[in-house]
Design brief:
Layout: H1 4-20, H2 22-38, H3 40-74, H4 76-92, H5 94-110, H6 112-128, H7 130-244, E1 247-253, E2 257-263, H8 264-267, E3 278-284, E4 295-299, E5 305-314, E6 319-326
Antiparallel strand pairs: 1-6, 2-5, 3-6, 4-5
Length: 329
């Protein structure tokens, strides 16, 4: 507030000085604009490169800012403490800092003509040497294009080398595949040979089994036939013996009986004899021998049965008639 008049005066003087030199500055700007228009393509290419570099630089700066942010986050307590201490220090020395700023403003006001002259001289120098700077940019562009062309050629050569290697490896793979296919055919031939030998062996064993079975069947038939004949002969012998052996049997005698009519089928499994057999009977009284003694007589013997007559009449119920039938054949 105390120095507002001084600052305002300095601004007025600066404005008057710029007004006096506006033609010079305008002329320089017009010439610079024409020169830039003539070299706009070169500048555009340079600006594109500058843009790409700026994007790459911005990406790197973003990564740096992220890393810095993480670092600041980790040390936020320390930074906060330092800022507090700095703020307190500035608060204590605010009068000194304000005096330094006022002195700096007065110094700039005193030397504003020199600073303005330096800016004008710098602009004229850039205007005079713009061709040199453009030439350097063009040379840089040409070098970049040549480098890019060389890199493209190197990449093309590398691609061709890789393609040749791939073709070579593919050829070896095809050759290995063909060799494997040949080995597979050889293995199949050997399998067919082994399979044929195995099939021949199986057929031979099968034939041997058939022959052995035929021999076994013949031997079995022979033995079976022999056994059957032997069995028939044995059966016939048993039948002959059985027919010649006497048939022994017993029948209970009913009480108050004078005679009995007996069939051969009643006392054996023979219903009829080929020849009239010989029959004999006897009366078997009770176990204690208390019954009367009886006599029996056989009569009217035929090939199917016979009759028995008792004397005296059988009275008791616990007597038995013992019978013997002998074949005369």
């Amino acid at each position: 507030h105390e120095h507002i008049d001084t600052v305002s005066g300095n601004l007025i003087a600066t404005g008057e000085h710029l007004h006096e030199h506006i033609d010079t500055v305008s002329g320089n700007l017009i010439a610079t604009g024409k020169h830039l228009h003539e070299h706009i393509d070169t500048v555009s290419g340079d600006l594109i490169d500058l843009r790409d570099n700026s994007i790459a630089s911005f990406a790197q700066q973003a990564l740096d800012l992220i890393a810095t942010g993480e670092h600041l986050h980790e040390h936020i307590d320390t930074v906060s403490g330092d800022l507090i201490a700095t703020g307190e220090h500035l608060h204590e020395h605010i009068d000194t800092v304000s005096g330094d700023l006022i002195a700096t403003g007065e110094h700039l006001h005193e030397h504003i003509d020199t600073v303005s002259g330096d800016l004008i001289a710098t602009g004229e120098h850039l205007h005079e040497h713009i061709d040199i700077v453009s030439g350097d940019l063009i040379d840089l562009r040409d070098d970049s294009i040549a480098s890019f062309a060389q890199q493209s050629l190197d990449l093309s050569n590398s691609g061709q080398t890789l393609l040749n290697d791939i073709i070579f490896v593919s050829g070896e793979s095809i050759a290995n595949l063909l060799a494997l296919s040949d080995d597979t055919h050889v293995l199949e031939d050997r399998l067919e040979l082994v399979s044929g030998e195995s099939l021949a062996n199986i057929i031979s064993v099968s034939d041997d089994i058939v022959l052995l079975k035929d021999d076994t069947d013949r031997e079995f038939i022979i033995h079976s036939g022999q056994n059957l004949a032997d069995h028939i002969l044995l059966s016939m012998d048993i039948f002959d013996v059985s027919t010649k052996l006497p048939n022994l049997s017993s029948l209970p005698i009913p009480p108050n009986t004078n005679f009995m009519a007996i069939e051969y089928s009643d006392v054996s499994n023979i219903a009829k004899y080929q020849f009239i057999p010989q029959v004999s009977t006897s009366v078997r009284i009770d176990f204690d021998g208390n019954n009367q003694v009886y006599a029996s007589s056989v009569y009217n013997v035929s090939d199917t049965g016979f009759y028995v007559k008792f004397n005296p009449q059988v009275i008791e119920s616990d007597n038995f008639l013992d019978i013997t039938v002998s074949n005369k054949a």
